[in-house]
Amino acid sequence: MKVFLSSTHLDLSDYRSRATEAIERLDQQVGRMEVFGARPEGAREASLREVETCELFVGIYAHRYGYQPAGSDISITEAEYRQAQRLGKPIFCFVVKEDYPWPPTMIEEEPGRTKLRAFKTEIETSLVLEKFTSPDDLALKVATSLGRYITQSFEPLVHELKGLIERNADASSDKRQAVADALSAAVEIANRTLQYLREPPPPSDKKSQKENELSQAWQAAGFKLLALPDPPTDLANRYFIKAEYWSNPELWTDRRVDEARIRIDEIANESRTVLLGQFQ
Predict the structure, then answer these.
(1) 138-149 confidence digits (pLDDT tens)
(2) For residue 244, what are the CA distances in angstroms to 28, 175, 222, 253?
(3) How far, in Å, CA of 128 to CA of 172, rounded?
(4) What is the pTM of this model?
(5) Domains along the chain with CATH numbers
């Protein structure tokens, strides 16, 4: 899953970095201005096009309204939000607490101040948002909100497959048990992984222990897939690669993760297709 990160930049650089780390810890890609590279289009057009390519939108707002291109009634930051809204993207907004100390040089004067106030008021009346203080506080709240949303995306899979198993009571008990075991293992390891990722990083000794446990659990889930009547060997192999990943995550770049096709949402979606196919 790809997440678009929207905010002004000058005043929120550290916050953007911590939010990016939190999103990437959830095994999600981040679309943001820092990685746009050279493009044959203006900044506004590039940002809006990037919003289109993302599945989720995260907006971070403090005391600057942001750059307003010539001929535009709104800033690029607000235009990004409007684009996500228009396209029906799930939107998560985080607004700095009004009483949190802020550098005076990073507080916008008029006319941007009035436009920012109106924009933030609209967000607060139309969405459930989070208020943040420090960069670490923001990172924790981003991880918690997105982690909860991603975890909930597995619930339809669980209910659908449980119902399917019940409706196929005439199938052999061994087959139903094999599918149930594979389902349980797939959902459990996905939830355990997301739970670990959305928590603050543990001390180094605990970190190594927890990641080793995740590695073993991904491997065990892969063996459950191989026990199916029609074993999905490619998917099971990716579970084993995910186990290898958790044995030493620091060795894996985003590109290597993408090439191995082991992001959680990708594996979860394919697991759904495979497990449903066991009764087709």
Answers:
(1) 998 998 898 888
(2) 18, 29, 12, 13
(3) 47
(4) 0.74
(5) 2-147 (3.40.50.10140), 153-277 (no CATH)
